[in-house]
Design the sequence.
């Protein structure tokens, strides 16, 4: 495993080297033979009880404590884990570096224990951790990294992802970022800037000045590029923005207003809406050739396209049937088939990275909801509801959805939230100012 990171002007160059897995490091200590199987979380359903886990400070002073705090916060925020309060810990960080007294941790209420340390190593810092099952008294995994100490937060997210995957069998989503629209000022004169942050709200920074209105940023699945709509010089058009280089370019000089862009799964195309000659249809732009292909035609308003994970289909919303509903067509265009038939209007569909669900915004009775349904339109479930919930975006593991919520009134706020695909574990995502239109990145390379 090698998670070497690429450089970014905005994000410190991070080069993380995994020195080896537990066995290679001699970290796989033989615990007492126990008949119990290691803890394994089965993710799903709303009656799930979070697994108690202990994440003491890593040995190594203040930095060790900070690393453990980020790991603990990541796991707790997922809703699948319940970190034990530090006051209940039966051993100190130094005491658990070799063979922790797992029976004592089990008595304290922990099903799992994370033990780690940070140590200077030349001009860098070594980070080591082990995950223990307190019931079976087995070491489940253990890994070591070297990195610049300035990048300790990212190392902590990677460790949290490793723990999440070992205990759930599914990929984590903690080593990711979220790009969104930062909003400030009165509602009739909002300043909207592109902003980016880690998935937990840390390392926040603005990408644009706020001089020009920006909307609907979307991450490329392949590199550190986003596409979005901007009213540069009062001309609404779709742009590409490379986060690494800061380079920005208009996608093309089209005759009409272009908006609602989204990348294809291979990152080679952008599908978007274009309003031209009184019609709003979907178009596909090949980023290698800049060739544009019209995908829909007719008098309906068709927008908010989103590719299936295999790139073979596109879900979008259209008023072709008389009200705003969700449709699916082949990636080549034409032949749209309606999939939403519930009571209300549907918008902003987004295909799950797993391919099993489509998230959407539903409008009914003056209320807005975030929901999910299968690609054939079956199994509709409403996850949230408020005055205005809108713009779902999936975490890369397809288990968590981020969206924004606007409260009513002239002074009402706009905030980012996350919710599990089960409809539980709704949480506020902290931002310095108001925020809307979130877009979740893939796992960092």
Sequence:
């Amino acid at each position: 495993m090698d998670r070497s990171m690429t450089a970014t002007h905005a994000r410190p160059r991070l080069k993380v080297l995994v020195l080896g897995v537990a066995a290679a490091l001699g970290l796989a200590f033989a615990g007492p033979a126990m008949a119990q199987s290691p803890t394994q979380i089965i993710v799903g359903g709303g009656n799930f009880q979070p697994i108690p886990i202990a994440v003491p400070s890593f040995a190594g002073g203040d930095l060790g404590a900070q690393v453990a705090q980020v790991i603990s916060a990541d796991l707790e925020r997922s809703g699948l884990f319940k970190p034990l309060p530090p006051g209940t810990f039966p051993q100190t960080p130094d005491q658990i570096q070799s063979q922790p007294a797992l029976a004592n941790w089990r008595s304290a209420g922990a099903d799992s224990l994370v033990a780690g340390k940070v140590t200077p190593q030349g001009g860098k810092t070594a980070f080591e951790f082990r995950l223990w099952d307190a019931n079976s008294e087995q070491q489940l995994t253990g890994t070591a990294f070297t990195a610049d100490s300035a990048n300790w937060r990212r190392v902590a997210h990677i460790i949290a992802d490793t723990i999440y995957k070992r205990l759930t069998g599914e990929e984590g989503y903690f080593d990711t970022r979220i790009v969104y629209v930062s909003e400030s000022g009165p509602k009739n004169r909002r300043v909207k800037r592109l902003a980016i942050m880690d998935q937990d709200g840390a390392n926040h920074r603005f990408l644009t000045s706020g001089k020009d209105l920006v909307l609907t940023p979307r991450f490329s699945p392949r590199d550190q590029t986003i596409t979005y709509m901007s009213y540069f010089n009062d001309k609404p058009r779709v742009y590409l923005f490379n986060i690494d280089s800061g380079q920005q370019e208009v996608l093309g000089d089209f005759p009409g207003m272009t908006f609602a862009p989204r990348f294809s799964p291979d990152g080679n195309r952008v599908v978007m809406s274009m309003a031209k000659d009184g019609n709003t249809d979907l178009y596909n732009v090949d980023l290698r050739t800049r060739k544009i292909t019209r995908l829909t035609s007719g008098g309906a308003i068709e927008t908010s396209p989103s590719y299936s994970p295999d790139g073979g289909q596109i879900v979008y919303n259209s008023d072709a049937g008389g009200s705003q509903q969700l449709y699916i067509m082949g990636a080549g265009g034409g032949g749209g088939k309606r999939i939403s038939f519930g009571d209300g209007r549907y918008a902003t569909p987004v295909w799950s990275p797993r391919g099993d669900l489509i998230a959407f915004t539903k409008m009914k009775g003056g209320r807005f909801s975030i929901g999910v349904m299968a690609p054939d339109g079956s199994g509709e479930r409403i996850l949230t509801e408020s005055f205005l919930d809108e713009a779902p975006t999936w975490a890369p593991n397809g288990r968590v959805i981020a969206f924004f919520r606007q409260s009513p009134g002239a002074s009402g706020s706009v905030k980012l939230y996350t919710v599990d695909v089960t409809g539980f574990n709704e949480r506020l995502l902290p931002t310095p100012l108001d925020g809307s239109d979130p877009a979740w990145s893939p796992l960092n390379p």
Summary: The mean pLDDT is 89. The first helix runs from residue 22 to 25. The CA atoms of residues 184 and 416 lie 14 Å apart. The helical segments are 22-25, 62-77, 102-107, 152-168.
